[in-house]
Amino acid sequence: MGFSSTRSRGRPGVRRIVGPIASLVLASSLLAACGGDSGKPELVWYINPDSGGQDAVAEKCSTDDYTITTQVLPQDAGQQRIQLARRLAAKDPSIDLMSIDPPFTAEFADAGFLAEVPQDAKSQLEEQGTFKGAMDAATWNDKLVVFPFWSNTQVLWYRKSFVEKAGLDMSQPVTWDQIIDAANDNDGKIGVQANKYEGYVVWINALVEGAGGRILENPEEGVDAKITIGDDAGQKAAEIIEKLATSGAAPADLSVSNEGTAGSTFGSDQGSFLVNWTYIFKNYDETAPDVAKDIGYTRYPQTVEGEESRPPYGGIGIGVSAYSDAKEQSLEAAQCLVSPESQGINADLTGNMPASTQGYEYEALQETFPADLLELFQTSVDAAAPRTVTPYWSDVSGSIQNIWHPPRSVDDETAQRSTTFIEDVLKGGDLL
Asked: Strand 189-191 vs strand 271-277: parallel, antiparallel, or unpaired?
């Protein structure tokens, strides 16, 4: 979800394969056989769980020459990575297309798992106004390696009734310090993602980038990249997390909070502020209509007052397997899957916004979302801070989770301790 946030569509995912490579190859051959004997090629697209958008797009883009079918990956982004990586490492030909979280794009490309995106497809993506952040996240070693499908971002959601009580002017940029103080002083709880998982690192990265820093620099240096999370920006990020975690604004489930639990906190009687992805706007329509009417929205909070925030960036890129037996057809299908109309259909069904400006022109989106919210989504994506594109992101992220979790343990030494630990893990001196 990128880290990306998606809603379960209530159907089981594909069973996770955990055996040795021999078992993987056997399982792959069995799946390939399921393509049927009809003679019409079946392109198998491994998708992240959602509420039906990818299935609808797969049906739309099926042709007389091939049918696109879907297989659902696990809910957790890390488990999605593991399942795909194991099967691709075994050169499994039964995977044709796959939905890939941005942090894992460089890793898969560096390993040779992905077919390069053709120049004509790249030109199409540029012509339909694909956001720069989406193109950057889809690029490794100056080559476009996945097709940007949807680009998600977080905004600051707030309860209108709460900010009126707190006397906070939401027409002006607000800081993390301001919303923590407002919630603490008015018996409110703030919804964030702080479980020991990728979503917590997304928050940390946004805080660091919002203070003008980066978690690491020179990613092209691989294990020798310069780790900079211990600099002043990292210290400021730690200060904010410590302040929230030790305040009355912290929900009781802070250390296990994710997108779903944070949404529940926001919908409760103590709901005040929430940082979460675009789908939240329609999240309460059926279950809590009074909450839905009480939702306001604005730009992601500033880490440092007066410095523009860098909202989180998430999304999904569609990769074509280098080992697909139908590579050319899969590349053709991918172009259809990421067309503006396809992006619009997916966004309308899932709340996961398009990766291009033309995708936002889809008529149903214009009817579903207020114009100012659609504008906020786009400006937030433009200003977003993707996690560093590096083949070693899984090690970097795991190291941060180890040192920064639980949030109540964060103090003025956390950022520097994580710098040392990341360096040790990357160079083999320590293990996750």
From this structure: parallel
Mean pLDDT of 325-331: 97
Instruction: Indicate the CATH number of 154-310+389-426 among 3.30.70.20, 3.40.190.10, 3.40.225.10, 3.40.228.10.
Output: 3.40.190.10
CA 340, CA 346: separation in Å to the nearest integer? 10
Fold of 21-152+313-383: D-Maltodextrin-Binding Protein; domain 2 (3.40.190)
Contact criterion met (CB below 8 Å) for 273 and 197? no
Tokens encoding 237? 């990020």
Q: What is the pLDDT of residue 19?
A: 33
**Residue 286: Cβ within 10 Å count:** 8
Full-model pTM: 0.88
Question: What does the pLDDT look like over 153-170, one tens digit per residue?
Answer: 999 999 999 999 999 999
**319, β-bridge pairs:** 98
User: Greatest CA span in the chain, whole angstroms?
Assistant: 67
CA distance 86 to 356: 31
Q: Is 135 helix (H, G, I), strand (E, B) or coil?
A: helix
Q: What is the pLDDT of residue 38?
A: 56
CA 229 to chain centre: 20
Domain ranges of the chain: 21-152+313-383, 154-310+389-426
